[in-house]
Amino acid sequence: MEIEKGTTGASSNLRGLLLALCLLLALVIGHALGLPIPGLSNAINRMAKHNESASELTGRTDFASISWYEGAKEYVRAQDEHRSMQAPLLIYFHTDWCPYCKKLDRDIFPSDEVSQFMRSVVKVRINPEAGPDERVLADQFGVRGYPSVFIIPINSDAPTKIYPFKRFGETFVAVKPSEFVRACREASTTKTP
């Protein structure tokens, strides 16, 4: 299923980055002054619990970045992380005007099951209308409609297309989050001939 023409999530990425920077700054200042930082141990415990639950899901103890890479320039960074972390790479081609992209962002990605799975992969969002480099990437992947989602497994450069929507009569219907995760997991497994 491909539909022509989602929200970027850039503001949530920025908020997460600012929160991480504030936490790091508080940690550095507190350490330098020899002061305890209220709530820091609780935050560390929550992060450890999050990592334990994700490792149960994926069997992995090292995790890809929780936030999304954005655009063609960050695609290169995502590829590097994909290789260095030995984590699958999820590539999501979207546009700002695409109603199906908005539905994917609103209904599928935030679901508990998909969110938990996404913690075990490197993720990059690319809007082919954002610039010529993004358009070249979309052409390399054969993108003809939106949303277009691909998984590149560990130790591979061969993408597998994931279909987050199914045709139902004259329209498209979102797959269940469990179906999306199942398709992503199957594509994440390196296939040997």
Describe the protein's architecture and organization.
This protein has 193 residues and is an alpha/beta fold. The chain is built from 7 helices and 7 strands. A 5-stranded mixed beta sheet has the order 1-3-2-4-5, with helices on both faces. A two-stranded antiparallel ribbon has the order 6-7. Residues 1-8 and 37-64 have low confidence and may be disordered. It starts with 9 loop residues before the first helix and ends in a 5-residue tail after the last helix. It is 49% helix and 15% strand. The chain is globular and about 60 Å long. The chain has a single domain (10-188), classed as Glutaredoxin (3-Layer(aba) Sandwich), CATH 3.40.30.
Main sheet makeup: 5 strands, mixed
Q: Give the rounded overall mean pLDDT.
A: 78
Secondary-structure element string: HHEHEHHEHEEEEH
Q: Kindly, what is the distance between the CA atoms of the first and last residues, rounded to a whole number of angstroms?
A: 28 Å
* Beta-strand residue percentage: 5-15%
CATH superfamily: Glutaredoxin
Q: What structural category do the secondary elements indicate?
A: alpha/beta
The CATH class turns out to be: Alpha Beta
From the coordinates shown, what is the CATH architecture? 3-Layer(aba) Sandwich
Tally the beta strands.
Answer: 7
CATH topology category name: Glutaredoxin
Radius of gyration: 18 Å
Unreliable sequence segments? 1-8, 37-64
Helix share bin: 40-55%
